[in-house]
Structure formats: C-alpha cells, structure tokens
Specification:
- This protein has 401 residues and is of the alpha+beta class.
- It folds into 3 domains: 103 residues, Beta Barrel (Elongation Factor Tu (Ef-tu), domain 3); 140 residues, Beta Barrel (OB fold (Dihydrolipoamide Acetyltransferase, E2P)), CATH 2.40.50; 92 residues, conserved putative lor/sdh protein from methanococcus maripaludis s2 fold.
- 28% of the residues lie in helices and 37% in strands.
- The chain has a 6-stranded antiparallel beta barrel with strand order 2-9-12-11-10-13. A 4-stranded antiparallel beta sheet has the order 6-5-3-8, with no helix packed on it. Strands 20-1-21 form a 3-stranded mixed beta sheet, with no helix packed on it.
- A hairpin with a 4-residue loop joins β11 and β12.
- α2 runs antiparallel to α3.
- The protein is elongated, with a radius of gyration of 43 Å.
- The two termini are 76 Å apart.
- The N terminus and C terminus are likely disordered.
Length: 401
C-alpha cells in the first residue's frame, strides 16, 4: 500500500507545481505592468513677471563700535583689580590700582619746589620794586635796577615751571588709578595683582568694547558694482528707497538676525591686491548676539525688479554637468531647460536666462518623471507651498498646458 500511494501522488505533485509556475509567469508578464502612455501627476506653476526686491549676500566680519585697549601709562606694581571680568563697565569706572606711593612722593616734591619758587619770586619782586623807587633819587645805578627786574622775571618763570612739574606729577599720580575710557563690556584681565606694568612698553592690561551697536565690514568686487550700475542705468533695476540700503544678517547657523541694519558707505576705496571695495553696515545689538570677530553673511538691498521671473528654490535641479535646470511642461511632456540663476528673493530664486513668462515649471513630483515623459500637470496649491518652504503663486491655466 505504501508504494502504491507514492506512485499515485507524484503526478499530482508535478501538476500542482506547474500551476504555481504558470501563475507566477502571468503575474510578471508585460500585460500586468504600468501602461507606457500613462500620465504622471506633477505639481506645477505658471511663471509670470512680478515685483521683487533684489538682494545680494556678502561675507562680513563683526566689529565693535568702540574698542579701547587699557594700557599702563605709568610704571609700577598692580595692587588691585577693581572689576569683574566679562562684566559691563561704565565710562570712568576704576579698573586697576597701581602702587601710588612713588608718585605721591613725586607730587609732594613738585609741590615743595613750587613753594620755593614762589618764595624766590616774591623776594625778587620786592627788591625790584624797592630799586624802582631808589632809582628816582639816584641812590642806585640803572644796572642794579635792571638786574633786580631780571631776577624777578626769572623767579616768575621758575614758578611757572614748578607749577607745570606739579601738574605733571599729579597726572602721573592719577594714572595709578586706571579707569575705563568708554562704557562697554570688558574682557579678561591680562595681568594679575602684583604684576609689574611699564609705561615705556605700554603694557596691555585689558580691553573694553562697546557692542550695543556693531559694525559689519563687508567686501564686494568692482565687477559686481559695475554690473549693478549698468542694471540701474538700463532700467532693469530701480532704487528701492531714497535712504541708505537696508541690510539683514544671516548668522552662522543659517538663521536671520532679528534686527535690520543699514549700509553706512559703499565703495570708498578699492583694495589694489584684491580688486574689492570695502562696505560697512551698522546694526543694533542690545541682546549682544553679534560679537566682534564673528563671521556672518549680510544681505543688502540692491533695488527693485518690476518684471522678475521667480521660481521656488526646490524647483531647481542640478544636471550631471553641474548646470541649473528646470523641468518644464511642454505639449504635455517633460522638457528640461538649462537656466541661469540670479539673486534669492525670500524662499524663491530669480531666473535671469532660459525661462520665459508663461512657462510651466514642475515644482513637485520629480521622482517619477524623466525627459519626454507624459505628465498630468496640476496647479501647485498654497498648502503645497507651505509644505515645500516657498510661496510662488500657481498660474490659473497651469493645468491646461
């Protein structure tokens, strides 16, 4: 019975296996694949000219409005450090105390010399006055009177010199109390108590920086300035305002600084070694986010283009050769177009060549398309714009192209 069951079940097993292979072949047959002429849905916009504020982004360094180096103006031993390192200090606030004893002694000596000179001039003046009365009765010679007047004059000069010496000694004594010349934030102390500081070497003791407002120094090539000037003269751009250009700081992490600044000057001189001009903008900095020496990028207003062609940044694709490319919809199919990009305007980017008004540009759905592929264009809606990070209007006829 056992051998009979095997002989009867083997043909059935072969038949069942054949059916499984047949079903798998039918599943993978071309008839079950996606039809070749199927239209792929994509989100598009119809590009139309619009008004745009044109900006340029330049590298820059933050500089303090005022930067004072605290240096020794007399030689001596530092007795006290009278500030908290890293704190805000006021103008005239005491920072360091240098041993004043030698300068107090010099001041007292100068004061004594002044008193001596004053006594000498008093005696010489009295003698000259007495001789001036005696000369009338010919009791003394003219030579004696002249000598007395000369001694009185020398005495007055000695008094003036002594007064100057006393003032100098008092100034040196005052320099033993080192104060801040400006209000601002002080850094670390560069010397310690007990250190010897020298007036001859102008020992650096600390630095105070005023950073409630800061400068940002920028550079720009002369070629860029010439291009901007030509655009203004041709009418392609017009000035955005009559005042100074507005500026926005882009921080190192890519975020925008909360306060806008203004450009103080542009193109005063050209650096002959780099061919670039210097620019300077000023920004409020009450929160002290911008620190001296910090690297930032600054967006400066260039002007206004009344007929700018803008597309969302994520609509721009990079070809294998590195060119910027837009996917256009023409006659219901994808047509790549190499373009030249200009300035960024918010989350959009300007196209300066390769794009025409009325062109339909693919914004989303790149994963499923290729050049020449048939597509079903659909207008890019506001909800899509919020999700994609840009805000370009969808053309009313975008889906009909």
């Amino acid at each position: 019975m056992l051998s009979f069951s095997h002989s009867m079940g083997w043909p059935r097993l072969v038949a069942a296996f054949s059916v499984v292979l047949l079903l798998a072949a039918c599943k993978d047959s071309p008839q079950s694949q996606q039809p070749q002429g199927m239209q792929i849905p994509v989100s598009v916009i119809e590009v139309q000219p619009q008004r745009a504020e044109i900006e340029v982004e330049l590298p820059g360094r933050v500089e303090a409005i005022k930067d004072a180096e605290i240096r020794a103006r007399v030689t001596g031993i530092v007795e006290e450090i009278n500030f908290r390192q890293g704190s805000d200090v006021q103008q005239g606030q005491l920072l360091f105390t240098i041993d004043p004893a030698p300068y107090e002694a010099a001041r007292d000596q100068a004061a004594a010399q002044l008193q001596r000179a004053q006594a000498d001039v008093q005696a010489a003046t009295l003698l000259a006055n007495r001789y001036s009365r005696l000369i009338k009765s010919n009791a003394i010679s003219r030579q004696e009177l002249d000598n007395a007047n000369a001694q009185a004059a020398q005495g007055r000069a000695a008094v003036a010199a002594a007064e100057a010496a006393l003032k100098s000694a008092e100034i040196d004594l005052g320099y033993t109390r080192v104060t801040s010349p400006i209000a601002g934030r002080i850094g670390k102390s560069l010397i310690t108590e007990g250190a010897l500081v020298s007036a001859g070497a102008a020992t650096l003791m600390a630095a105070v920086q005023q950073i409630d407002r800061v400068y940002v120094d920028l550079t720009r090539s002369t070629a860029q300035l010439a291009e901007l000037r030509r655009a203004m003269e041709s009418g392609a751009l017009r000035r955005s305002s009559e005042g100074n250009a507005q500026a926005t700081v882009v921080l190192e992490d890519g975020s925008l600084y909360a306060h806008r600044g203004e450009l103080l000057f542009s193109g005063v001189s050209v650096d002959p070694s780099t061919g670039q001009v210097s620019l300077r903008a000023v920004f409020p900095n009450d929160e002290q986010i911008l620190l001296p020496g910090m690297y930032v990028r600054v967006r400066l207003q260039q002007g206004v283009d009344e007929n700018a062609l803008l597309v969302p940044e994520h609509a721009v694709q990079r070809s294998a050769d590195g060119l910027s490319t837009l996917m256009l919809v023409k006659d219901g199919a994808i047509s790549p177009m190499a373009v030249t990009l200009g300035s960024r305007v918010g989350t959009q980017i300007m196209v300066v060549a390769g794009l025409q008004a009325g062109d339909v540009v693919v914004v989303e759905g790149f994963q499923k398309i290729r050049p020449g592929a048939p597509v079903q264009p659909m207008p890019w809606k506001a909800a899509d714009a919020d999700a994609g990070g840009a805000a370009a209007p969808a053309g009313p006829d975008a889906g009909a192209k």
